[in-house]
Amino acid sequence: MCPAERFPARPWAPTTVPGGGAITPPIGPLVRPDRGPAPLTSPARLAEFFAPRRIALVGASETSGWSRFVFAAAAAAGFSGELIPVHPVHRTVFGRPAVRRLADLAAPADLAFVMVPTHAVAEIIEESGEAGRRGAVVLASGYREAGDAGRAEQDLLAGRARELGITLLGPNCLGFVNVHDGAAPFALTLPSPLTPGPVGIALASGALAGVVLGFARSRAIGVSTLVTLGNEAMVTAADVIEYFVEDDRTRAICVFLEDVGDVARLSAAAERADLAGKPIVALKTGSSPAGQRAALAHTGSVTGNDAVANAALRQLNIIRVGSIEELLTTASVLAYGSRPQGRRMGVLTASGGACGLIADHAHAAGFEIPPFAPQTTAAIAAHLPEFATVGNPLDVTGYFLANRREDALTPIDHALDAAVADPGLDFVLFAGVTLPETRPADERLAAQLEDRFAWLGRRIATAPIPVVCLSPACVDVTNYARDVLTRHGIHPLGGIDLGVRAIDGALRWLERRGHVRTLGPRPHASVSGSAWSELDARMFLENFGIPTVPADLADSADAAAVAAQRFGFPVALKACSALIPHKSDIGAVALGLQSAAAVRAAYGQVRSAAEAATGTGIEGVLVSPLRGGGVELLAGVTIDPVFGPVLTVGLGGIWVEVLRDISLRLLPASSSDVAGMLAELRGHALLTGARGREPVDVDALAQVLCRLGEAALSLGDALDCVEINPLWVSGTRIEALDVLVVSEKGPAT
Amino acid sequence: MCPAERFPARPWAPTTVPGGGAITPPIGPLVRPDRGPAPLTSPARLAEFFAPRRIALVGASETSGWSRFVFAAAAAAGFSGELIPVHPVHRTVFGRPAVRRLADLAAPADLAFVMVPTHAVAEIIEESGEAGRRGAVVLASGYREAGDAGRAEQDLLAGRARELGITLLGPNCLGFVNVHDGAAPFALTLPSPLTPGPVGIALASGALAGVVLGFARSRAIGVSTLVTLGNEAMVTAADVIEYFVEDDRTRAICVFLEDVGDVARLSAAAERADLAGKPIVALKTGSSPAGQRAALAHTGSVTGNDAVANAALRQLNIIRVGSIEELLTTASVLAYGSRPQGRRMGVLTASGGACGLIADHAHAAGFEIPPFAPQTTAAIAAHLPEFATVGNPLDVTGYFLANRREDALTPIDHALDAAVADPGLDFVLFAGVTLPETRPADERLAAQLEDRFAWLGRRIATAPIPVVCLSPACVDVTNYARDVLTRHGIHPLGGIDLGVRAIDGALRWLERRGHVRTLGPRPHASVSGSAWSELDARMFLENFGIPTVPADLADSADAAAVAAQRFGFPVALKACSALIPHKSDIGAVALGLQSAAAVRAAYGQVRSAAEAATGTGIEGVLVSPLRGGGVELLAGVTIDPVFGPVLTVGLGGIWVEVLRDISLRLLPASSSDVAGMLAELRGHALLTGARGREPVDVDALAQVLCRLGEAALSLGDALDCVEINPLWVSGTRIEALDVLVVSEKGPAT
Question: What CATH topology corresponds to A44-190?
Fold first, then answer.
């Protein structure tokens, strides 16, 4: 077992090394700090913050668009509490009496919604503190996103709010919308009606709030609270996630991120969400160089390497999606109804075209559409005309639509009734929920429709397996349809492409549950790292139980020849020096030497090349046997500026260089994590015996890679990079053929 | 130059071989048949067919749902012509006077819409003919999709219609909707309103018509005519495409296909569409095994291998998409406004979040977002607050929304004005077209909005580069917004994900224009193919100018040793026999023989193994030099049951076996086609000098592969497969190391 598995909660702690080798002294904090929220941003505090009954609108004015929006938002959300304008000059604002200063309020407001210019914000926060306000939303921009001075100003603001006991959302944010409680201190247009529901939303880009709520409305997806995060000076995405985890009205969490902020805090929130069974779905920008530029311009965030972000979100079981539509649709699959427990799907449609499209998308996403059990087929066939083909996917055909019925139920409903009892299915995708756009004028027909959907709602609620409903295209659910569907607890996904992607996202979340761990603080890359000599690097890794190829340090041609003869030919020679990390670039490496004479000659060449490059500092020349056959891997630990230490593993040669076939994990990683990394490589088959190769001992390999991570972490904040390239594997034999360690401090002596 | 390039119109014609080698006699048709539509399905005839003014509804009855739908569809489409029920019993149907038989009509109807049961259809067609009807739509099912008897019945029906001069749509179809002319003989619910416009639609699955038209309405995409194809007994998808090509009101064509039908006919239609500049966008099912099952159940089509379908559609410059939403959105990009000519995009948004998302999607799809020219930046900056960052992608921020304006134009409009003049951009993606859901009650505001959109419409129409408008999410365009946008010629795409994919699809179409060629008739796979002896296969390919590795046919161990000495060691031996296509499986191959003694020994073993496997029929043992280094490819021609002869090219080893890295083209393929195949291989870099390899003569390689296609086609209908595996390439040296030919007839003697 890999040490990380034994001490998952203390990733930076020292480790004992199998085999009793020397222990490199750990650098960095030994005690894992608490990664939970601070008191001012605790779930309990935020529950209060997000449900204000008295809101002071500081800086409200009829000439300000923001003010107009805030009053309109309160109306859209049906706010029944008090909105009190605070303005030094105006006596009324939009018909409401204003006070001059916060201190003039008869009783403290629950929340100050601060719309004053940037330069006046600090004073308002002071006044808030004096007036006993416990919460403030700050709209003004010109902080972190405006460079170093702005960042300092922001830190000052947050620090002062902390001292005054004020929970601060923003700055540079638009507020929030608590749909359940009808509180919407929010400064842009809101779509109407807002439907309360189980999806909590946190957005780094406030201007997207209207778009997100508009899509939610169009698909009848209910929202608990939407929070715009702004610059996250105090309340962060992680805090809002933890609030949602504790909020009984929220069943799934959507976040739009431009950066991940404090990775350790986010991981703690993700762990809590995973334990609580509340999925987090994330839309994160920054996968393109231009996207990174946009994020910089917007909030001044540092956006890390996107492949690392991908790996990190996966590790935290945060479902990463690609669009606003997918964000909400994926959350709705998990927020409504019961959750599919596997990938075997029954498909019921009223069109052969939809059947084919669903099958294609499902196949691409890794779903299985198994044949129905005989009893299911028989039960469905009883309700279809003789010429119909009963199979999975099922097309009941438009036939039933054209035949007047006395019964409220249609053949596809009977098919649903049968399919949910099929023992070979994990869930049913039901594309039979199309409603007319408006209530039929014919009362009998309207009543029949109502009966049908009431039956469907009951059948779905009591079905032994989940039923996911699907509309054939992504168009708005009309008011009439939304009313009928919502009343009966039916929540169709918007379109085949989006719907199948959302179910796939939901399944990925379910499949990865239970493995999220809170990460420790992430060390930064050292700015002045230098390479160790290969001999030091080899010893360092050997002490962590990583096997290296045998090597002798020779200081003469004769010694080299003797060593070569002992190892057997062919051998390799390379100069050993801390000053030459890339030896082959300068000719300080000789490979495939077949005789003592060749070794002697090569010794001179390698030594001369190294000395020509560095002058002195050559420790000698390393002689090693040459390995052939087997598989070569690349394995390394580097420091991502956002995510900290990352383990990268790939197959050597074209796999990395041409195909970029690599797998990443934030450290620490257990050996089972690493086994997962190997399994996700496209070239994985080469390890398990493809093309007549000998299968590799994957467990042993995973342990070695796991120890590489341990070794790298033991360097703490001094770590810059540790790399094995290649790591040679042949059957059960594993050897690091070439190693590199770069750190701020040199090797421990 | 490869022969196929010289005779593109006669792909099956005999070819002269460079170097004056023997010519294999061509088999199969020498004369290319006309691939245009038959007179009854010509564009002119269909133009008449799709614009009926008098429609006889044969079998109309108030007890039939179909009839109800047809009357409702006529109302939804605003049909102003005559609907005449024809029924043997009913005197009126839904209030309209009925006639008993078609012959009883005072004047012939333009179209018979036939809703009678399957067994009565043939008689109605006879009556139609007698009554001088020129067109019929047949709803009844139970034909091709019902097996062999149904298929025969369908052939009979179509044949009789042809004799009677009747254009027949269906059977098993739901009719069509001509939106411009308001003619909708169509038997399911239609969404209302129907907006006339430039997108023509043909659907293999009639039940999807409502979904497709519903999505078109939701995104304000106007439709010219929608046709449901049913079983395509006479009128096929290709015919409808050619009708759309000639139809001035159609600018882009959408097709939903379950199978491609007659590939040669489709290719002719695709060539005409490409020449006319009318893009075809296709949604085709069958990419999954289950999808293929669904298609079979639905219309009894044979769905071919999906990778071949992908290659074929690409070759025909038909844009393949993955969803109904993408089908219409892609068509709308190409149907409305001017078309982007390149991938350098300017991006204008009012939200940093949208900026980042667009940048990410654009990057993934291969778009470039270059920095603005200095004059563009300066012009935009003049309209933004000082703290705003001006760059591409541009976020004008929500700022402007919150400030009352006297001017109708907003900062994002001024940014558009500047960006369209930027010399470094090919088009502008403009996400600034959000409208309120309803007309503002404030008349001044409503007029200001109208002025703004009028200005935008004019600016877009006169801009030197195309402007593609984008809504931030895929939600319905409201009636008010549809009205304003359509009036000013503005057609926003529905959401970032869908929008960027659609623009990418449009660009792919533009990039591939001008290369579509009508394909000849596609031979079928022979059922009784047998392998040729390797010596015959080698000679056959050599006659087409394909270099093969030197080989001597030895009939004794001594002769083998002499040949080996002449070639130089190491050599390979393999048994030569038409009866052993896979020699290495039975031990009839020996590789890496280093001496005459080894060759002698191996001769005996190889010969024995071959004789043990086949008894007699051994022509001898082939001796060849062994090749090393370089790159090995796999190249072969096989017959796809739908698409006919297909050339497959891939890199050997893991590339094909682990990564499935292959490229396909329907034959004939020119050497530039083949060069394109090589370029799209993921391992292409291995051919151009990656990892220190010697670059390969790609032009010469492409010519050899092109000749392989020629050789295969020369076998005509007898062709089963021709394969070179491996094809060895090292610098300028190219040699087929192992070849296989399987055909119905043996080699020409």
Answer: Rossmann fold (3.40.50)
A693 close contact with B: CB closer than 8 A: no
Q: Which two tokens stand for residue A677?
A: 């990394």
Question: What residue ranges of chain A have pLDDT lower than 70?
Answer: 1-36, 289-304, 398-406, 525-527, 691-692, 748-749
Q: Which residues of B touch A71 (CB under 8 A)?
A: none
End-to-end CA distance of chain A: 28
Q: Which CATH superfamily is domain A631-743 in?
A: ATP-grasp fold, B domain (3.30.470.20)
User: What average pLDDT does this structure show over B19-36?
Assistant: 41
Nearest chain A residue to B67, by CA: A402
The pLDDT of residue A240 is: 98
Tokens of B708: 């392989």
- A685 Cβ under 8 Å from any chain B Cβ: yes
Return the pLDDT at A5: 35
Q: Which of A291, A322, A401 sits opposite B359 (nearest CB)?
A: A291
Q: In a mutagenesis test of the B interface, which of A205, A347, A367 is the best target, namely the one with the most B β-carbons within 10 Å? A: A205
Instruction: Give the model confidence (pLDDT) of B556-565 as tens digits.
Output: 999 999 999 9
Looking at chain A from residue 174 to 213, which residues have their Cβ under 8 Å from any Cβ of chain B?
A: 174, 187-189, 191, 203-208, 211-212
Q: Give the domain A204-336 fold.
A: Rossmann fold (3.40.50)
Three-class DSSP labels, A123-149: HHHHHHHHCCCCEEEECCCCCHHHCHH
Burial class (CB in 10 A: 0-12, 13-18, 19+), A446: middle
* CATH class of the B39-335 domain in this structure: alpha beta
* CB atoms closer than 10 angstroms to residue A501: 24
Average pLDDT over residues B41-68: 94
- Where are the domains positioned within chain A? 44-190, 204-336, 345-490, 550-625, 631-743
The answer to whether A445 contacts chain B (CB < 8 Å) is no
pLDDT number for residue A289? 66
- Which pLDDT value is given to residue B744? 85
Give kind and range of the element (H or E) at residue A644. Answer: strand A644-651
Q: What's the confidence (pLDDT) of residue A405?
A: 62
Q: How far apart are CA A369 and CA A309, in angstroms?
A: 33
Does the fold of domain A345-490 match that of domain A44-190? yes
Fill in the amino acid letter for A204. A
Beta bridge mates, A728: A632, A735
**Burial class of A361 by CB neighbour count within 10 A (0 to 12, 13 to 18, 19+):** buried
What is this structure's pTM?
0.90
ipTM: 0.89
Check if B404 contacts A (Cβ < 8 Å): yes
| B381 at A interface, C-beta within 8 A | no
CB pair distance less than 8 Å for A393 and B354: no
CATH of domain B550-625: 3.30.1490.20
Nearest to B207 among A323, A353, A361 (CB): A353
The CATH number for B345-490, chosen from 3.30.70.2190, 3.40.50.261, 3.90.470.10, 3.30.365.10, is: 3.40.50.261
Most A CBs within 10 Å, among B64, B144, B153, B285, to test the A interface: B285
Task: Give B159-215 pLDDT, tens digit per residue.
Answer: 999 999 999 999 999 999 999 999 999 999 899 889 999 999 999 999 899 999 999
Distance, CA of A515 to CA of B359 (rounded, Å): 32
